[in-house]
Amino acid sequence: MDRVNHTQVSEFVFLGLTNSWDIQLLFFVFFSVVYLTGMLGNSLIVFTVTSDPHLHSPMYLLLANLSFIDLGISSVTAPKMICDLFRKHKVISFSGCVTQMFFIHLIGGVEMVLLIAMAFDRYVAICKPLHYLIIMCPRMCTLLLAAAWIIGLIHAVVQMSFIVDLPFCGPNKLDSFYCDLPRFIKLACTDTHRLQFMVTANSGFMSIGVFLILIISYIFILFTVQKHSSSGSFKALSTLSAHIIVVILFFGPIIFFYAWPFNTSHLDKYLAVFVSILTPFLNPVIYTLRNKEMKLAMRKVCSHLASFRKIS
Ligand SMILES: *[C@@H]1O[C@H](CO)[C@@H](O)[C@H](O)[C@H]1NC(C)=O
Asked: pLDDT averaged over consecutive 10-residue blocks of the chain (312 residues)?
C-alpha cells in the first residue's frame, strides 16, 4: 500500500538505440530478419526434436529446451524494441517494466543452468561413456530441468525483491531499449548505491560463477578426449566446440555488462541487443550446422511440412 502511495511514476520512457532515421531503418530491417529467423530456427529445433523419436536422447532434449528458452529470451525484449524503433515516444508501463525485468532474469538464470546441464551431459558422454545411459536417465534430465527452472526463479525473485519497495517520484527516462535493472534502480528517488551494488553483484557472481564452472568442465573434457584420442573423440570435439562457442557468445556480453568496472555508456546497450537477439539466433545455427543427425531430421520435418501443405 505504502509503495502505491509514493509511486507517482506510472510509465517509463526508453531513449532507444539511436535517433538517426537511416540507422533506425537499418536496425528495423536487420533486427526483424534476425528475430524472425531466430524464432523460426528455434521453433524448428523444438518441433524436430519432439517429433523425431531418434532424437529423444538427453543431448537433443536439452538442446530443444535451450531452443525453447531462446524463444523466450528474444521475445521478452525484441518485439517491443522493433515496434518502438519508429515511435517518437517509446513508453512502457510500470508493471510492464517490472514484468520485463522479471522474465529477463528468470530466463537468463534458467539458460545459465541449462548450459551447465548440457556441459554435464557432454562430460558424462565423453568421460564416462559406459555409464552414460545409467547416469543420464530420463529422471536425471527432469531433475536437471527442474533445477534450472527453480534456480532461475529464485534468482529472478531475489532480484525483484530488491526493487519492490523503491519509491519512484519523477525521473522516468531509461537510456536503453528495454527495462534494464541497474538503470531502473538509478531512477528511484532514494540513495540506491547499495541496491545497485547488490543487483549487479547478484547477476555478476551468478554469471561469472557459471561461466567458470563451464570453462573448467570443458577444459576437463578436452583433456580426457586428448588422452584417449580415437575416432569417436573427433565427433565429441565437434559437438563440444559448438557448446563452447555458444557459451562464449552468451556469457561474454553478460559478464562485460555486469562485471566491467568502468563506465561504458553506450556499449552495453548494444551488448544487450547481442544477448537478446543475436545469441538466440546463432544458437540453432551453431548447433545444427555442425550436426549431421540434426540436419537430416530437420530436412525430414521440412519436407513433411511441405508435403502436408500441398495436400491441404
Ligand atoms: C525438455 O526436456 C525434457 C526431458 O528432459 C523433454 O521431455 C521436453 O520435451 C523438453 N522440452 C522441450 C520444449 O523440448
From this structure: 57 83 88 92 92 88 93 90 86 90 93 92 87 91 96 94 84 85 85 84 87 90 76 69 84 77 67 82 80 83 78 62
Q: Whose CA is nearest to atom 6 of ligand 1?
A: 61
Q: What is the distance in A from the centroid of ligand 1 to the CA of 229?
A: 32
Sheet holding 173-174, edge to edge: 90-93, 11-14, 173-174
As separate numbers, helices (DSSP H) first and strands (DSSP E) second, the chain gives 12, 3
- Could you tell me the pTM of the whole model? 0.88
Residue found under cell 559437438 = 239
Q: Which three cell numbers stand for residue 18?
A: 539511436
DSSP string, 106-140: HHHHHHHHHHHHHHHHHHHHHHSGGGHHHHT-HHH
Closest CA to 284 of 80, 34, 58: 34
